[in-house]
User: Fold these one by one.
Assistant:
Number 1:
Amino acid sequence: MSSAHIDAAPGQIADTVLLPGDPLRARFVAQALLADPQQVTARRNMLGFTGTWNGRPVSVMGGGMGIPSTAIYVTELARSYGVRRIIRIGTCGGLGDVAMGEVLLAQSGSTDSRFNRMQFGGHDLAASADFGLLRAAVDSAAEQDLAVRVANVFSTDCFYGGDPQVLDHLRRHHIIGVEMETAGLYGLAMREGFRALAILTVSDLFATGESMPAAEREQGLIRMAKLALACTEPG
Ligand code: HPA
């Protein structure tokens, strides 16, 4: 049996899933880094793959853009496939003194979305990373000689428009990355009981309007995926 939005048979998805937004990036990561990657789902072209890494099964699946899309896939991965660890690998806009290409490890996700409030009695949830995964990512990055920064990020529902003051608020609260999924992923992880982390490469700078070229985005994706895989190593 599959779930409403995922075709895979039970057992075809590993208990660790790397989650880029774009399904073609999921395919790229699976083919570049996993041994024997098999496509396990393609409903609505939201591709997912399972292979092995260092002999252990790992899946890579697209989650789409924004909290609602991500939440559908993540909820089904957790509830229908028993996934225990989800590591988002994505991009974000950078604020303040962040540099293009910097890798952020999101320790918290603030948001303008009502998604977590709707499940939390209207109160504000401190949507947070799993500490064990965050620590493993910090340690693995040091081993890989990869500079990373533990950061607070903001997940917005509005890629275009939204609150014109928001960047001022973010700067004031030392939030340095803006993307569209992390707060929802972390809220779901807290409710559903799986472990989550978002690893984000800065691909746009608000200060200058500069954007990262496509080839560098690809390198950034592989860098993040290698870090994500390393922090799933046992022990
Ligand atoms: N805003 C929202 N999401 C993003 C951005 C951004 O500037 N850059 C990459 N993902």
Number 2:
Amino acid sequence: MKFFIDTANLEQIKEAQDLGILDGVTTNPSLMAKEGISGAEAIKQHYKIICEIVDGDISAEVLSTTYEEMIKEGEELAAIHPNIVVKIPMIKDGVKALKYFSEKGIKTNCTLIFSAGQALLAAKAGATYVSPFLGRLDDISTDGLNLIEEIRTIYNNYMYDTEILAASIRSPMHIINCAKIGADVITSPLPSILGLLKHPLTDLGLAQFVADAKKLG
Ligand code: G3P
């Protein structure tokens, strides 16, 4: 399973990269705004910096919502760096844009996926990744993991190449459950990734080993 980090924060991206387990980065307009990035040139520059830190797929989301504008914007984003993946919303014009980019050999990530039908359409249109939003479904008392399972079944049935990129991750348990189901990728905030490290018996065991190591001279 690939690990992407879901942030535009450069310090956190560097920290995950230094850990040696990072395969890519996802961003969205809200995450960019959180970092105080604004203006087309500043956004492009920020993506360039991320691409220099991480050698993997970097999702850059279009800000427009019409087919023509998404094509123009997506082509500009794709020109920033060969690792840029154009992130497109799951709307009618978005499906058309996915098809366009797929035919041009430009990687895409179809975002805001909340149903199996949407994931099926995105795969038909040739999306490289689909991003089902696990946590936001859980937030409204709907089982987000069930959606990941449904998409896994459908993609397996027809051997779609589209990769399931589980997004809106809120906890280490989300990551573990996605791995059990067979999501191809998770994109997660840094704390949930680091949460995978933690076990009290590891801490206790290490403290004992360190104490005993001193006795060995
Ligand atoms: O990047 C898309 C997704 O991961 C957003 O997560 O936490 O805003 O629901 P969240």
